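R.M. (postdoc): so does anyone remember the format we settled on? I'll just put the structure tokens first.
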């Protein structure tokens, strides 16, 4: 009897360990949520689908945006053609080379996902649930046939709870700037960091060319980056799309920046999205100070 109990607990321990590993935090998942959260909230306000559900489905169906379907067709929700008259892509799924919808950009995939659920009688009963009832939505999607996996609902719930996505279901506002950038499409790859957004300059870029693509005054753009409006940028330069912050994110509180060869106070301020004067102030340095390789600089 004791041997049986010992074996049972050993097996249970293995099971718990496997399960915990399967839902352990994933940086690619967090990056995905940081990128698309504003679109999910916008869609929630328009159509009533919980932002947590949209994000969890998007990250799961698209492999955090890295699946072949996401890369080739910007399809983040695995929606098949089914009368679709737009661009198509073909992918092995339940059968070989099935037809899937393809989109101009990820934003349009999110919009079509909302319209697909809202306009389909199959999912009508889900819209009677509260936006905060993510468990009801997850189980309802499975019951209504969105996915064939028997664990689909529980996987969505695990993701939502692990990353606390349910907090977005109560959000009243979202960053309209980020949504606008996504809607613009692939003109620029907009990245998120430090409650801000930035792009990487291409060869020959100026504040005028980036401002034109991002629909921002090039004079404002130069001001945000503490540069002259007529500067020619170097390929690889970080260009912030909103005014930089006073300090780096919280995770850098006890993590000083170690100065590397070729860095300057300005390039470090750009790296962390910090205003240059605040970087000097945090480190109690005079404006004329020249940093040296190996210097340790506070960034928060």
């Amino acid at each position: 009897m004791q041997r049986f109990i010992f074996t049972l607990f050993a097996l249970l321990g293995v099971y718990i360990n496997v399960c915990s590993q399967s839902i352990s935090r994933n940086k690619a998942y967090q990056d995905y949520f940081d990128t698309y959260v504003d679109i999910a909230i916008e869609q929630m306000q328009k159509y009533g689908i919980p932002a947590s559900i949209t994000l969890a489905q998007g990250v799961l169906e698209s492999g955090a945006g890295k699946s072949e379907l996401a890369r080739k067709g910007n399809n983040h929700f695995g929606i098949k053609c089914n009368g679709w008259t737009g661009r198509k892509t073909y992918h092995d799924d339940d059968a070989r080379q099935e037809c899937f919808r393809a989109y101009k950009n990820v934003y349009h995939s999110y919009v079509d996902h909302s319209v697909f659920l809202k306009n389909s009688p199959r999912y009508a009963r889900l819209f009677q649930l509260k936006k905060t009832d993510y468990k009801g939505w997850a189980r309802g999607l499975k019951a209504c046939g969105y996915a064939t996996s028997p664990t689909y609902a529980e996987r969505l719930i695990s993701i939502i709870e692990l990353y606390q996505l349910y907090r977005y279901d109560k959000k009243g506002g979202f960053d309209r700037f980020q949504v606008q950038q996504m809607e613009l499409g692939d003109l620029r790859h907009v990245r998120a960091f430090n409650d801000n957004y930035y792009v990487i300059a291409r060869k020959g870029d100026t504040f005028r060319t980036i401002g034109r693509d991002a629909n921002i005054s090039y004079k404002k753009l130069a001001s945000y980056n503490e540069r002259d409006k007529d500067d020619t940028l170097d390929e690889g330069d970080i260009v912030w799309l909103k005014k930089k912050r006073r300090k780096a994110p919280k995770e850098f509180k006890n993590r000083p920046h170690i100065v590397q060869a070729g860095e300057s106070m300005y390039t470090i301020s750009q790296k962390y999205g910090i205003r240059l004067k605040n970087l000097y102030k945090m480190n109690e340095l005079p404006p004329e100070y020249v940093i040296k390789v190996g210097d340790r600089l506070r960034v928060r």
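R.M.: ...and that's the designed sequence above, right after the tokens. Also worth knowing: The first strand starts at residue 88 and ends at 91. The two ends are 58 Å apart (CA to CA).
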